[in-house]
Amino acid sequence: MSNFMPMLYAFWDSDITYSFRKSRVAVISALVLLAMFLTAIFAPSLAPQDPFNIAELDLFDSELPPAWAEGGSAAYLLGTDTQARDVLSSIMYGMRISLLVGFASVILAAVMGVALGLLGGFLGGIVDAVLMRIADVLLSFPPILVALLINGILRGALPSSAQAESALIVLILSIGLTNWVQYARTVRGSTMVERRKEYIEAARTLGTGKLAIMIKHILPNVLGPVLVIATINLGMAVLTEATLSFLGVGMPPTQPSLGTLIQIGNEFLFSGIWWVVVFPAAALAILVLAVNLLGDWLRDALNPKLR
Amino acid sequence: MTPQITPDDILSVQNISKRFDVSEPFLNRLLERRPRRILTAVNDISFEVPRGKTFAVVGESGCGKSTVARLLMGLHSPSGGTIRFEGDDITHMPPGKPAALRRRMQMIFQDPYASLNPRWRVRDIIGEPLKNFGICKTRAEVTREVEKLLSQVGLNPADAKKFPHEFSGGQRQRLSIARALTTRPELLICDEPTSALDVSVQSQILNLMKDLQDEFNMSYIFISHDLAVVWYMADVLAVMYLGKIVEVGPKEEIFGNPQHPYTRLLMETVPKLTVGGAERAPVAGEVPNPISPPPGCAFHPRCPMANDTCRSVAPALNLREGGQKSACHAADEGRLKPWLRLAAE
Amino acid sequence: MSLLELDNIVVEFPTRRGPLEAVKGLSLDLDEGEILGLVGESGAGKSITGAAITGLIEPPGLIRSGEVRLRGARIDNLPADKMRRIRGKEIGAIFQDPLTSLNPVYTVGEQLVDTMRVHLGLDQKTARQRAIDWLAEVGIPAPEARLDQYPHQFSGGMRQRVVIALALCAEPKLIIADEPTTALDVSVQAQILSLLKRLCRENGTAVVLVTHDMGVIAETADRVAVMYAGRLVEIGDVKQVIEEPLHPYTRGLMASIPQIGIRDRRLTQIEGAMPGLRNPAPGCAFAPRCPRAMDHCHSIRPAPQDAGTGQVACHLYGETS
């Protein structure tokens, strides 16, 4: 523990934190993300209303415009939809789902991709060939289509009664199983490079087993790009989820994500109740933008050649 | 030719070869109708390493010396021949097995930057063999042993918690040596350990290696392309060219009267630190492609004494007057001119 | 007037913790047709010095002070396009790695012809014929055929010969060769050095030969400059510096090189390591490792003074001893 303060100082003073502090874009994106993150976690406490609790809804207040417009009310800052659900609260709860699906699918994709990439890169031969061909097939389809396909298969396997509750898991699985390929490819390439290095030869001569070499020696050295990929992938995952929900095969309206909200609100776009779709869409856009900007900064900060 | 294995030899290698398949991928070959390509990196080599001495292997790129090192450690499996350590056959044993035998032979590598895991601390790097071979059972034991080894190689024991990048090239080679010493090996295989180091650091490492050899009575197999370093370190040496041993024997005899044109070429091309001597007339040509070596004696395209026999028949290793063996038709036929000893102080 | 003069140059690399001086106050000069060896170990600053001469220091590194003069005219402060013209026409360069020195997507002939047309203003036909002549000159068999081959079709030694031809074909007066033989086999090294020496003598080209290998210097150079921790510690005729070095570092360096025929049990070694660039100590940079260091060596930095056949930066010589 006596190491802690010097370690903390070393971290604050390190090149990467310095680079972070210097980059206004990175700091702002990180703050925005942090705000969204905290909002999502503490939504039940923060949101003015729980929009999915019918008892809290007052149909009199439906279709109210945002607070600053004529006819708006301070109680509903961003207005309400046709069923008197507060848009702001819906966004908060929706963000929760979007972020949850985003993170979970990224973690799934990362774990699966890294593991398969390690195996393929280290073992080579037929294992590698098979994995890479599967990856090639997956990559030749647009990711949305693949996600749709996996989604459809999983849903088809479930009885219709279970579909609403399992939507979350199904979504995480379909997006995760689509996106593992990029991790696998990068990790495989790095593994193949590291495998030939002399410290691996040394480990072999010292009697270290193959599994130990993969996990203890190679893995720490190939994880670098994974963080960058994961960050950028998060934005894609959230968007994919929004797209699937928008298409109606994602989160149901009873447990909507930002995408579902956009879908619901879309129908009313031209009937004058613009706030029901515009604000969720803006929230989604800001979320993805912040994630992507942070990912870009991270990629440049971690790139040894640019240091 | 039966090799003379004596009980004083710690390692004996007989007729080992290593062939690599460097053909293009199957589909490419099928579509472009190309033949298989086989690279013979090591071609029927035999030698014995005397106990407690340094056996050097000298050669340039592509001669197969690094492959020999890896064959001995089990990192590659030989395509033919046998390897015996203290009489036990380890020819096809994977690296690290059997533990009882392998722990008595260790290796240090050429590149000080690639031979240590950059993400591991020094105590873990040196601690790995201690744990693998069961030498230390507890963390405390490992720490104690690591600190002892660091001192032995001239480093500060407090540096055990540092990462490799915090050390210089020479210090990293010391770390590699410390890691190799963990199992108290009897045989240390050194693959160009100082080639990547500056001259003043090289002398420190070479001195250290000599001191350790005396202290622990280790045998060394020392691989290098630098004849001056080999002169300093070796007792016996073998000169390799394109996968074959062309000359082998005691150091003094080979340096005093080399019996192969390639050895002579190497001697000539060592830059001398005297100014104003006669300009050397360097032999032309480069090492040919090992995938398609020349027929007969592999050196004949560059050899000033090549005749028709040389161009068609591969020479065998024969004993010469001085005590070394060389594979050369010119030497067999008495066509090799006397060697003018290089002026040395 | 010398062909090349380095006048007290300081090369600096800004980092966020303050600037690092890779070369500190280096002065030397080179006459026409002379081969000067620039010797030092890793981190001594010799490659950076070579880069300073050709104007190829990677930004944000820069020459903070001092001048580089070619035939009396300053070249370190030229705008990029003027420097480009000088590079190639007046100053040629040979680098260590023949694989990356040549553009892999152009044939050898195209690179040679291109260079000569730009710098010598020749027409296509003449340039092509000259290119063939140059390839023959550097010892490449069947030059007409090989002119239209790509770099990867040549072996390492052949590629370095092409690089030499490329450096010399624009007929520069000065060549900077940075470790030209380090990446080559020993038997090829000798050929390349011999070639370089002969061609430079024939064409009257001066060479700054940057290397860590004293043996290469002994064979090839006329004078040698020894660098340590970014400074010049000794410069003189190659025979004197190698056989009777003055500076303790040079002495230590020469003594630690293993030589065939010598039967010492131990090699002389210099304890410790070269100091890093950060926080240079006052006084002589070699003092901590010097077997003959005196008290004031640790506090007063020795300036280069005339000694032997050139200069030495050491308190053991000159008025301060």
UniProtKB/TrEMBL annotation, chain A:
<feature type="transmembrane region" description="Helical">
    <location>
        <begin position="268"/>
        <end position="295"/>
    </location>
</feature>
<feature type="transmembrane region" description="Helical">
    <location>
        <begin position="166"/>
        <end position="187"/>
    </location>
</feature>
<feature type="transmembrane region" description="Helical">
    <location>
        <begin position="25"/>
        <end position="47"/>
    </location>
</feature>
<keyword id="KW-0472">Membrane</keyword>
<keyword id="KW-1133">Transmembrane helix</keyword>
<keyword id="KW-0812">Transmembrane</keyword>
<dbReference type="GO" id="GO:0005886">
    <property type="term" value="C:plasma membrane"/>
</dbReference>
<dbReference type="InterPro" id="IPR000515">
    <property type="entry name" value="MetI-like"/>
</dbReference>
<dbReference type="InterPro" id="IPR050366">
    <property type="entry name" value="BP-dependent_transpt_permease"/>
</dbReference>
<dbReference type="GO" id="GO:0055085">
    <property type="term" value="P:transmembrane transport"/>
</dbReference>
<protein>
    <submittedName>
        <fullName>ABC transporter permease</fullName>
    </submittedName>
</protein>
<dbReference type="Pfam" id="PF12911">
    <property type="entry name" value="OppC_N"/>
</dbReference>
<dbReference type="Pfam" id="PF00528">
    <property type="entry name" value="BPD_transp_1"/>
</dbReference>
<keyword id="KW-1003">Cell membrane</keyword>
<keyword id="KW-0813">Transport</keyword>
Automatic annotation (TrEMBL), chain B:
<dbReference type="GO" id="GO:0005524">
    <property type="term" value="F:ATP binding"/>
</dbReference>
<protein>
    <submittedName>
        <fullName>ATP-binding cassette domain-containing protein</fullName>
    </submittedName>
</protein>
<dbReference type="InterPro" id="IPR050319">
    <property type="entry name" value="ABC_transp_ATP-bind"/>
</dbReference>
<dbReference type="InterPro" id="IPR027417">
    <property type="entry name" value="P-loop_NTPase"/>
</dbReference>
<dbReference type="InterPro" id="IPR013563">
    <property type="entry name" value="Oligopep_ABC_C"/>
</dbReference>
<dbReference type="InterPro" id="IPR003593">
    <property type="entry name" value="AAA+_ATPase"/>
</dbReference>
<dbReference type="Pfam" id="PF08352">
    <property type="entry name" value="oligo_HPY"/>
</dbReference>
<dbReference type="InterPro" id="IPR003439">
    <property type="entry name" value="ABC_transporter-like_ATP-bd"/>
</dbReference>
<keyword id="KW-0067">ATP-binding</keyword>
<keyword id="KW-0547">Nucleotide-binding</keyword>
<dbReference type="GO" id="GO:0005886">
    <property type="term" value="C:plasma membrane"/>
</dbReference>
<comment type="similarity">
    <text>Belongs to the ABC transporter superfamily.</text>
</comment>
<keyword id="KW-0813">Transport</keyword>
<dbReference type="InterPro" id="IPR017871">
    <property type="entry name" value="ABC_transporter-like_CS"/>
</dbReference>
<feature type="domain" description="ABC transporter">
    <location>
        <begin position="11"/>
        <end position="267"/>
    </location>
</feature>
From TrEMBL, chain C:
<dbReference type="Pfam" id="PF00005">
    <property type="entry name" value="ABC_tran"/>
</dbReference>
<feature type="domain" description="ABC transporter">
    <location>
        <begin position="4"/>
        <end position="254"/>
    </location>
</feature>
<dbReference type="GO" id="GO:0005524">
    <property type="term" value="F:ATP binding"/>
</dbReference>
<protein>
    <submittedName>
        <fullName>ABC transporter ATP-binding protein</fullName>
    </submittedName>
</protein>
<dbReference type="InterPro" id="IPR003593">
    <property type="entry name" value="AAA+_ATPase"/>
</dbReference>
<dbReference type="Pfam" id="PF08352">
    <property type="entry name" value="oligo_HPY"/>
</dbReference>
<dbReference type="GO" id="GO:0055085">
    <property type="term" value="P:transmembrane transport"/>
</dbReference>
<keyword id="KW-0067">ATP-binding</keyword>
<dbReference type="InterPro" id="IPR050388">
    <property type="entry name" value="ABC_Ni/Peptide_Import"/>
</dbReference>
<keyword id="KW-0813">Transport</keyword>
<dbReference type="GO" id="GO:0005886">
    <property type="term" value="C:plasma membrane"/>
</dbReference>
<dbReference type="InterPro" id="IPR003439">
    <property type="entry name" value="ABC_transporter-like_ATP-bd"/>
</dbReference>
<dbReference type="GO" id="GO:0015833">
    <property type="term" value="P:peptide transport"/>
</dbReference>
<keyword id="KW-0472">Membrane</keyword>
<comment type="similarity">
    <text>Belongs to the ABC transporter superfamily.</text>
</comment>
